[in-house]
Amino acid sequence: MTYVDFDWETRSKADIKIVGGYNYAYDPSTEILCAAAIIGDTSYAWCPHADVTVEGADVVTRDIPDEVLQAARGGATFVAHNAYGFDEYVWDRFVGIPVEWVDTLLLARANSLPGGLDKCGQFLFNEGKDDKGSKIMLKLCKPNRTGRFFPLNRQNTSAVSRYCLKDVQLMKRVRESMDNQEPELIKVDRIINQRGFQFDGELAQRLIACDAVNRKEAVDNCVLEPEVLRSNPQLLKWLESCEVHLPNLQRGTITGYLEDESVQPVVRDVLNARIGATKITSAKVHRALGLMGSDGRIRNSFAYHAAHTGRWGGRGFSTQNLPRGIKCNVDELVSETMAGYQPSDAELSTLIRACMIGPFAVADYAQIEVRVLAWLAGQEDLLDEFRAGSDVYVNLASQVFNTKEVDGDQRQVGKALILGCGFGLGADTFEVYGQGYGIDFQAIGMNSKQLVDMYRDRYPMIAGTDTGREYKGHKIRVDGLWKAYGKAFKDIANNVSTEEYAGRCIFKRQGDDILTYLPSGRFLRYRNVQMEMRVPSWGGDPVPTIMYQSSKGFRLPLFPSKVAQNNTQAVARDLLGFALIQAENSGLQVVSHCHDEIIDQSSNLDLLLEVMRRKPDWAEGLPVDAEGKIVNRYCKV
Prior knowledge:
By secondary structure, the chain is α+β, with helices and mostly antiparallel strands. Helices cover 47% and strands 18% of the residues.
């Protein structure tokens, strides 16, 4: 296979951070400053504005080099860092020859490396980008305060072209050092990003105006200054003076507390104002409006492998982090809002999603992480409950409360336990977590420690079997998924072995790294794994702790329950990736997805559900289900 490692340097009056790569590339003011390429052992520089020499380039031309064009027509694979978010669009506009691209930004993320080329090079080779050239490029790439570009001359053209070529040289080394585990999924990810979704600009403008009214009203009715509302320490101190002791000021904690009708009116006003003062509705919608193309679509909203587990992240306006909103008739709410109705904050959260215009088939996996965790652990009784179609939250709540008739509040306890305790949540953290589900521990007559122990006793293949002994008030457990994963990592980190098997995963040593091979065959890479003496988060003396280096460069602890969480989320993500490929191959038109949800603009719900219920060969025995509906505008199903 012939590779063309490639990079552009451009300038434009459009701000790429505001409008995105697609709109930037097609903006009338965008033009090429230079480009560089490496084919085999030959380096090329294209400098359309001046006849210059470029240090390190074998061939320098005013027009795009013939060898690059021949390679494109001959089926070579082009490589760029952020190819799918920038370089491909620029190529399509200014060259137009169809080519296949490889994006090293995506490969870097999938290999647990920093996404930026500079940091990636520093991480791998202790060599980054050209700082001097970068400063010149920043000076040339956008207009000054008068709206004019800095004049080009032979000196700065040569310097920025050298900078561009050095980027290509560094990128080529990065490409050659990385694995591409998912070429088919990356292609589908590219299709989904380029397809984009239709966005309602008129509704968005109305939401901005409504949000401003709500925020002003909330702040006007508040006894505190806006600066205090936005300051966590100051607001928590004020709440304590009112004998209100909240563990944090997260939105879920505040809304859960406000459900109590006995909350003092002044405290209620302040907390409602806090929600209003820290809302980001306008910011999200403003960002979306800037990203809209001339056809009304928003593109490139998904960042492949943004998380260590391989999950996607959001870029610009993305469904990955939108507020959930409320259940209501979305179409009626949109019509009323456009006719002058002033929506509440909760309704505004719903309307942000409704800016995505369908019709859509929207479907999500049912309790996918709980199912995957049970499957990895071999907790067959829980898997059998899923296979039978029973309500696992009710089943657990029935045992917790020793009753066959489970009410809604009791089911919430079962739901919080199953969703919260699978990854090692302890009593203190579950107490905070449970408040988000509206659990009143005093009313149910049980504390968080009792509930956590009930979860762990019920699912020993996950949490371990109770030995009947205790240490510092905690039950001593043996076996279970958490301990199996912890032992596998610890044995490899301590060089007791180079390969271990636990919970359907294989753990292998590779140099200083440990690779976790998932059932799909994909691996998660933990870099520079070592046993280090660290003080636990709960205090005490330093203890031997598994540590690894994140893609951000931080040393992070890796606890057994965290390994279980990473593996569970990674397997659930692999199921989503499989479904996205199947959907595209089946003729569906996916425009968005979020963790366990797929949004299809062809509106073929039956086919979408059938696709999501398909299982890859590696997932035999894992009960998978999905549910969904047809909607005119996007909303949570």
